[in-house]
Specification:
425 residues, alpha/beta, Urease, subunit C, domain 1, TIM Barrel, 2 domains, 5-stranded parallel sheet, 30% helix, 24% strand
């Protein structure tokens, strides 16, 4: 049994809410002990942290890996390497592939490819309806037995309320988690910006923030009716937060997430029509971003992820309205999120509560914690190391990041999965 000591680090414990000096011992892929910064003992390997921060590895919920169907955009190997470079130890993948992951056979194919090619854990979600078309629910029980950790149609809203109600009812009987994209499809269809003066000045089709609130209110009403488990994948507007708070106070089993892009960028970033800033939902106004930061800090919004969506150059080199939406984020999730720490808006334990602990809790995983017996899925990072992001140096196959050329602060120095080092400088 190999005993690896990571000494002289600051241990970030999101469960206890602490940030303190110490050392961590790894044995047999697990955290064996938390120790003083420079302990004595017999160790097979000693890694000097040099005062850097050590935290639970990131669990990135909502990652698109383009296998099957669009492997040229992202493969399990390239996504896994990008994740390891970014401190992500578990990626929870979306089913919006070609074809959609809506059968046990497709899910098993994905699981085999992930196990063979990715250096980090890969947990697949499966489609909620067949073909993600919103007409007939999938075989949720069989897909769950095949390894699906949750069920979602991604950014396609199930417009037929009866179909969604049946799916929630069936999922409740199995204890399965349903993930929905909270937008009113009629209002949001064709929109590429959030409505307001800036969208009008740019001449782009826009959608009111109320489209999100309407979508969320419908899903919460169905949740109240069915008493299932629900995760709203992107709650990004101030108008939606009172509805979410009310549902939680009523005791409904609901959680919510947000992407790092919606937490650190706003609609003004679309000013030059650069298509790397075209996202689903669109970037919001600064008031919405500020409200979302406060909601994440308070715990009202539970999870923070990259919503990693690779697109090739051809689909992005189009006029803004016609370009494909989405941005990659596996490698930029941590340094971009650290902007909020450097600005004094979040503490490191609060940040890793959203990046690691809460996603693990929602999915019933043992990860996201610094405690004896927990998996040794870890990230060591230099909080203060500055750099300018060059998208061509990224490990993702697709390079569509809105942070290209941005000044960021915080670099990953090491990533461990089950005690094995898989990435970091």
């Amino acid at each position: 049994m190999t005993r690896t000591l990571i000494r002289d680090v600051r241990l970030i414990d999101p469960e206890g809410g602490t940030d303190q000096p110490g050392a961590l011992l790894i044995e047999d892929g697990l955290i064996a002990d938390l120790l003083p910064p420079d302990p004595e003992g017999d160790f097979d390997e000693v890694i000097d942290g040099n005062g850097k921060h050590l935290a639970p590895g990131i669990v990135d919920w909502g990652v698109k890996v383009s296998e099957p169907g669009e492997r040229h955009k992202e493969s399990f190997r390239s996504a896994g390497l990008a994740a390891a470079a970014g401190g992500v130890t578990t990626i929870v993948t979306r089913p919006d592939t070609l074809p959609a992951i809506d059968t046990p056979e497709t899910l098993e194919f994905v699981a085999r490819r992930a196990a063979a090619d990715s250096p980090v854990h890969v947990l697949p979600m499966a489609a909620l309806t067949k073909g993600r078309e919103g007409r007939e629910m999938t075989e949720i029980a069989f897909l769950r037995d095949a390894g699906a950790v949750a069920f979602t149609d991604g950014d396609r809203v199930t417009e037929d309320t009866r179909v969604l109600a049946r799916a929630l009812t069936y999922a409740r009987g199995l204890g399965a988690l349903v993930v929905t994209h909270v937008q009113d499809p009629g209002l949001s269809r064709g929109a590429v910006m959030t409505s307001g003066k800036f969208a009008s000045l740019r001449g782009l089709p826009a959608v009111s923030p109320m489209a999100e609130r309407i979508g969320l209110e419908r899903d919460l009403a169905l949740l109240e009716m069915t008493r299932a488990r629900l995760h709203a994948d992107q709650v990004t507007t101030a108008a939606s937060l009172p509805s979410l708070l009310r549902a939680k106070e009523q005791g409904l089993d609901v959680t919510a997430g947000i992407s790092v892009h919606h937490l650190t960028l706003n609609d003004f970033d679309v000013g030059d029509y650069r298509t790397f800033f075209k996202l689903v939902p669109p970037l919001r106004q600064e008031e919405d971003r500020e409200a979302a930061v406060e909601a994440l800090a308070s715990g009202l919004i539970d999870t923070l992820g990259s919503m990693h969506t690779p697109q090739d150059e051809e689909s992005k080199r189009l006029p803004f309205e016609g370009a494909a939406p989405g941005a990659v984020g596996l490698e930029t999730l941590l340094p971009a999120s650290l902007r909020l720490v450097h600005a004094g808006r979040l503490s490191l334990p609060q940040l890793f509560r959203a990046l690691s602990l809460n996603p693990s809790r929602c999915l019933g995983l043992p990860t996201g914690r610094l405690r004896k017996g927990a998996p040794a899925d870890l990230v060591l990072f230099d909080l203060h190391a500055p750099f300018v992001l060059d998208r061509w140096r990224m490990l993702s196959k697709s390079k569509n990041t809105p942070f290209d050329g941005a000044r960021l602060q915080g670099r990953v120095r090491g990533t461990w999965v089950a005690g094995r080092r898989v990435g970091g400088a």
